[in-house]
């Protein structure tokens, strides 16, 4: 199973994007190898689809921010994207390359485009990855379609409207009645503007419904400690070294 109860899940966000040893190499095989060498077995990535239908492990819609090339992922073929380099040396990996490189890892995947929905559902089915992935999206329509395509065989994270129900309503029973039960985890920021999302009440309601709470993206050890004291089930981090240190000190690193 993807979700392990009784264990704090440590997610290497884009491979640990701001670890000093790999900064500038987010979402590359080098970054994920670095995280795996530290002991991370939960890896977070994002997916887009190239013009010729290949799923890429890449966050942005365009190459411009992190590579030496430009252009939108959806307007380029894989062969063109292969010419780009992240950090001057690393290629943009396909999702297949990432999954094949880490056969023991589990992958938290964020759907970043409409075309990625069908492509990811087909990819998971073709490889039988039902228990090795958890999929989320900011778009309610996108995640609903993914759930339909996969027949609820793949665990998913709540979309923003489902999150709001559990955050604002007074009980888990009422929230479940309104939001349904089509997801296994909340993957949320600690705060959104002035609103604290991850309160003790929110965590309590989630746990009462048998749901996980995972918080992104936490790079400050004091904030990690605060959230762990609040009972969260997982933390995403760009500073894989710091999160590991906090969990080791608390006897929670596995």
TrEMBL record:
A Pfam family hit? GDPD
Occurrences of domain GP-PDE (ranges): 8-247
PROSITE patterns associated with the record? GP_PDE
> Which InterPro entries does this chain map to?
GP_PDE_dom (IPR030395), PLC-like_Pdiesterase_TIM-brl (IPR017946)
Q: What Gene3D superfamilies does the annotation carry?
A: Phosphatidylinositol (PI) phosphodiesterase
The cross-references to PANTHER family, in alphabetical order and at most eight, read: GLYCEROPHOSPHORYL DIESTER PHOSPHODIESTERASE, GP-PDE DOMAIN-CONTAINING PROTEIN
Q: What is this protein called?
A: Glycerophosphodiester phosphodiesterase
The opening ranks of the lineage are: Bacteria, Bacillati, Actinomycetota, Actinomycetes, Propionibacteriales
